[in-house]
Each structure stands twice: as structure tokens, then as C-alpha cells.
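Contributing new records

If you add data, match the layout below exactly. Sequence lines come first and carry their own label; structure lines follow with theirs. Keep one chain per record. Anything else will be rejected by the validation script.
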Amino acid sequence: MLALIPNFASGGRHIGVIEHVITLPDHRGKGIATKTIDAALTFAWDKRCCKVFLLSGATRTEAHRIYESLGFNGDVERGFVIKAPAP
């Protein structure tokens, strides 16, 4: 999923958010995630996003290696998550 969020702080350019990059186990290792993220980044840059951040589970180190190989850096900014309380 790629969401584009208007951002007043960067001259009105959007921020891109990538989340829920999931490849079924039987299809891993075939470059699907890489191609999907490449397509999302191309779309975001074409829409003049000032940056794209990607959310990933903290323990998914195998996925993190893929993201880093694509240029993402987990040490640039720090994200915090809060989830809605149970109904």
C-alpha cells in the first residue's frame, strides 16, 4: 500500500507512506517485493513526493535487508506507532 499525504512543510509536496508489503512464503525470493516497491517509488517520485517512508514490523529483519538494498535507511528518522484501543 502506498499512501500520499499532503505536507505543508515541504512546499506542499506529498509524503509517501508504504506499508503492508507482504509476499506469501511460496513466492518469496522471486523479486516480487523489490518490483512492487520499485513501482511504488516510481509513482511517488512522479507525483513529486519529498520523501517516502516505509513501515515494517520491528522483528522482520529479512524484509529489512530488502528495504535497505532498495535505498531505505532505518536510521534516518524514528517512527512511533499507536494502535486504536480494542472496542
